[in-house]
Amino acid sequence: AAGQPDEESRRGAFSSRRVFILAAIGSAVGLGNIWRFPYVAYENGGGAFVVPYLVALLTAGIPFLLLDYAIGHRYRGSAPLSFARLRRGTEGLGWWQVAICFVIAVYYAAVIAWALRYTFFSLDEAWGADPEGFFFGEFLQAGDVEVTADVVPGVLAPLALVWVAVLAIMVLGVQRGIGVTSVVFIPVLVLAFLVLVVQALLLPGAGAGLDALFTPDWSALTSASVWAAAFGQIFFSLSVGFGIMITYASYVRRREDMIGSGLVVGFSNSGFELLAGIGVFAALGFMAQAGGVPVGEVASGGIGLAFIAFPTIISEAPAGALIGVLFFGSLVIAGLTSLVSVIEVVISAVRDKFDTSRLTATLVVVVPLSVLSLVMFSTTSGIYVLDVVDHFVNQYGILVVALVSMLVVAWALRALPGLGDHLNVHGRPRVGAGWRTLTSVVAPVGLAVVLVLALRDDLT
Ligand code: PFF
Fold first, then answer.
1. Considering only Cβ atoms within 10 Å of each terminal Cβ, which end of the chain, N or C, has fewer?
2. How high is the pLDDT of residue 379?
3. Cβ atoms of 236 and 36 closer than 8 Å
4. DSSP secondary structure string, 335-353?
5. ipTM exceeding 0.90, yes/no
6. pLDDT at 142 (0 to 100)
7. Ligand 1 midpoint to CA 69 (Å)
8. Given phi > 0 = left and psi -120 to 50 = alpha, else beta, which region is 355?
């Protein structure tokens, strides 16, 4: 292998373990934590969801995260290069992950741009009395499916800004770009979100919202789809299985504890998720009370939560503008630090394969990405494409490649003992037979069940 300093100056590296941990948290904490987790938990047993969720985290999520770390940290390459070094012939798995990341980046950027615009809309409640009509009609002009000559006016500027920011971060590189962004923005995100949660808890009706979220439905524990939801949420939320953690781990200096880091990242991500659940449902409780309806009628996730429910809450709550700026600002930061992680998967793969400079690789990747994204989302709402692509990428693209790569590493290549030894050289607590069983049996079975149930849902 190349000498350490050479390799570092050529590929880039995080300057310390702390920076790596913050960048990994930045990737893990994304839209999934804020707008996906609360609703998934609510729908799948409420307080009882904590059981399958913790089981999924401890038996599959963290073990799988450590596997990704081990591959990237030991083989010191982008996803395709790491797989190729693990065993020739498996490089394709890495390229599959690269392709998924490319697709995700196109539409993830659009959601961040919407949130950026809405941060400012919060100041004057631009959505007026009808947030839903405003979002789909005026803002996205979602009636227009055809690509038209006129741009969707509200989206172009924020989307261009997102891409300029991404370009700047990516050109600056691993430490000065991604590292510094994470070190600055992750503490800001946590702070902003804490203030938001406190603010939400002070709203009338917050208690009812929390009751709705946390009241356990123990019968959920016997439902396979609830367990599948927990495993699905954990895999997505930790950003495992799609090349991100392999890539980031390849930028960590050799003598670092990857096991301890994985535990910190895993628990921080779940902590943020819990916090988001509290904040979101406290706010929904307020919305329900204001509308005189039960919380169940206003509970939602995804685009509906962020761009329809929250505007309503912001309009009605005392100090609504503050809530809006904190909420949408958090979405922007959480989204941006995840977006750069998926794009880095693509850039590092291009660099490793074609031996190009960081600047060249960044331009080769970010220019087409941004053009695609801008054409797609500023000339049509893109919302139909986004819905369909997001569903297929999340349900099948990621899950299938995660499952296949796990089976290949564990069973076809029998690589777990070697990877475990690698983690144990500097890592604590050590991993052993337990970890190998979890990664080779429990996590793949969890993934397979999620997949089968998703398929069944789509077919019926
Ligand atoms: N862990 C991220 C989240 O919870 O939102 C998942 C993710 C999605 C990461 C999309 C990166 C990304 F571009």
1. C
2. 82
3. yes
4. HHHHHHHHHHHHHHHHHHH
5. yes
6. 79
7. 17
8. left
Sign of CA dihedral 217, 219, 224, 225: negative
The H-or-E segment that residue 36 falls in is none
The pair of structure tokens assigned to 385 is 């494409």
Q: Residue 75 is inside which H or E element, if any?
A: helix 62-75
Under a CB-based contact definition with an 8 Å cutoff, are residues 165 and 181 in contact?
A: no
User: Using an 8 Å Cβ cutoff, are 250 and 348 in contact?
Assistant: yes
Cα(327)–Cα(314) distance, integer angstroms:
10
Q: Are 295 and 285 in contact (CB under 8 A)?
A: yes
According to the model, what pLDDT value does residue 2 have?
46
pLDDT at 144: 54
Of 412, 414, 416, the residue nearest 439 (C-alpha):
416
d(CA 415, CA 12) in angstroms, rounded, equals 27
Length of the chain: 460
Q: Which overall architecture, per CATH, does domain 4-459 show?
A: Orthogonal Bundle (1.10)
Low-confidence ranges of the chain (pLDDT < 50): 1-3
Neighbours of 223 (CB within 10 A): 14
For the stretch 237-274, what's the b/e string if a residue is b when 16 or more beta carbons lie within 10 angstroms of its beta carbon?
bbbbbbbbbbbbbbbbeeebbbbebbbbbbebbbebbb
Indicate if ligand 1 lies below 6 Å from the C-beta of 30.
Answer: yes
Short-list 362, 186, 351, CA closest to 265: 186
What is the C-alpha to C-alpha distance for residues 256 and 251, in angstroms, rounded to an integer? Answer: 11
Span from the CA of 106 to the centroid of ligand 1 (angstroms): 13
Taking the CA of residue 334 as reference, the ligand 1 atom at the shortest distance is: 5
Q: What are phi and psi of 299, to 5 degrees?
A: -65, 135
Closest C-alpha to 246, from 346, 112, 171: 346
Rounded to two decimals, the pTM is: 0.96
Q: 14: phi > 0 → left, psi -120 to 50 → alpha, else beta; which?
A: beta
Tell whether ligand 1 has an atom less than 6 A from the beta carbon of residue 314.
no
Pocket flag, ligand 1, residue 104 (CB < 6 Å): yes
Whether the CB-CB separation of 310 and 280 falls below 8 Å is answered with no
